[in-house]
Amino acid sequence: MSSTSIAVVSGKGGVGKTTISANLSIALAEFGKKVTVLDADIEMANLEYHFGITAHTSLLDVLKGRAILQDAIYTPYEGLDLWVVPAGIELTKLKGINPDTLSDVIEYLTDSSHTDILIVDSPAGLNQNTVVAISACQNTLLVVNPEIPSLSDALKTRVVAEKLGSAILGVVVNRASRTKEELAPEEIETILEKKVMAVIPEEPRMKACVNYGIPLIKAYPDSPAAHAFKKLAADISGNEYKVPKPKVSIIDRFLRGILGRRS
Ligand SMILES: Nc1ncnc2c1ncn2[C@@H]1O[C@H](COP(=O)(O)OP(=O)(O)O)[C@@H](O)[C@H]1O
Ligand SMILES: [Mg+2]
């Protein structure tokens, strides 16, 4: 497989890009891929928290010319070909950064012999670094929540990504609870005119995972959201993955009846 790069983007902030980048990159590495995940959200850097990494050297040091990229690469899991490049936390962070340098880092990592798949966790909206990340990546994965404001912003991002020449791989619907009130995947496909590649359910343990620095796929590999990440990774990497059927308890069936949840 030749190497590929995927920018994980959204219109609105807080929809789950970093959560998806972390879990998806682990799932891809578990399928035997050589994966690099880069935090390009320099203003709201938080990928390192998801992995429980304390980054002494980060992308920011590289962009400011204070360190070489190799020193900003972390390998949190033994036995997994996974490189993590944190963005770094600093108050005066954006001063003196040439946006071309981020583009160079993305191109360098994509071409690196280590990388089969580069995941670029991008900033929300359409600021300069988002545009750089999208332009430098071959593909874009659009993350939305199943609600109208998230979709209207995602639509703008989709149009810009297409203008920048990045292929839209598909849409990931995150935090789905499959209630009647929220938009169904088919409605989202109609609005965005793009395929929904994955629906990641709302997972109450997600917050704890970030707080403990252990991604859900590692902490709760049998949770429905972890299975959804694995299925998405399988589809992206050309592998097979059969999601096990959830065990539906009598209480669940009863609640579905009352709350009108979709099956
Ligand atoms: N599937 C999910 N279920 C529950 N909470 C989630 C889920 N995905 C993300 N979150 C929570 O949503 C918040 C924002 O997620 P994050 O990945 O930081 O979004 P973004 O990178 O798009 O800003 C975090 O508190 C995270 O724990
Ligand atoms: Mg983020």
Q: Determine the structural class based on helices, strands and strand pairing.
A: alpha/beta
Q: Determine the fraction of residues in helical runs and give it as a percent range.
A: 25-40%
CATH class placement = Alpha Beta
Strands of the widest sheet, in order across it, are 3-2-4-1-5-6-7
Give a count of the beta strands, DSSP E runs of length 2 or more.
Answer: 7
The CATH topology is: Rossmann fold
**Low-pLDDT segments, ≥5 res:** none
What small molecules does the structure contain? Answer: adenosine-5'-diphosphate, magnesium ion
Q: Give the count of structural domains.
A: 1
What distance separates the N and C termini?
36 Å
Strand content: 15-25%
> What is the element string, with H for helices and E for strands?
EHEHHEHEHEHEHEHHHH
* Count, helices: 11
In round numbers, the mean pLDDT is 92
